[in-house]
Structures are given as C-alpha cells and as structure tokens.
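Dear support,

I submitted the protein below through the web form. The confirmation email said the job was done, but the results page showed an empty box. After a refresh the structure appeared. I'm attaching both so you can tell me whether what I see now is the final result or a partial one.
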Amino acid sequence: MMIQEAIINELQYIPEAKLVELYDLIHYFRLGLNSEKQLVDDEVKIDPELCLQTLAKLKQGDFSSFTEIENIEFHIQSLRNEIS
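What the results page shows now:
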C-alpha cells in the first residue's frame, strides 16, 4: 500500500471535529515545504526548527504569520462547511 493510501485510510478513524485541525496542519506543512525550495540530492531540505515553531503556533491557534489567507476565521469556517 502506498503511503498516500495509508494516510487516506487513517483519515476514517479521525473524529470529524478534528479534521479541520488536521487539514490546517497538512496545509501549512506543505506551504512550509513549498517556501523552502532548497533541494539537496533531489530531496527537499526541511528545517525541523521551523516546522516545530509552525506546529506550536497552530496548536495555540496563532495563524498571524500565515498571510496568504486574508481572513483566517472565514477560511476555517469555509473548510468546516466543506467537510460538513
């Protein structure tokens, strides 16, 4: 089984109320990867400290540094509506 299939399979065991948080984590993690654009031997170089800082902010509900979304509350509500 490919890792993407395994991840998708695991999603069915996550409570509906937690899916928005999981989406935010995955989304912002991906944005962090895209912003680094540093390739080493065809692999993306990940800054573990930056990832931990981002995860800590997300856990605290601090979305202030994520400027690509103008209205985070509206965005989160839209995501909730999509999965409801």
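Response: this is the final, complete result; the empty box was a page-load delay. The chain has one domain: 15-83.
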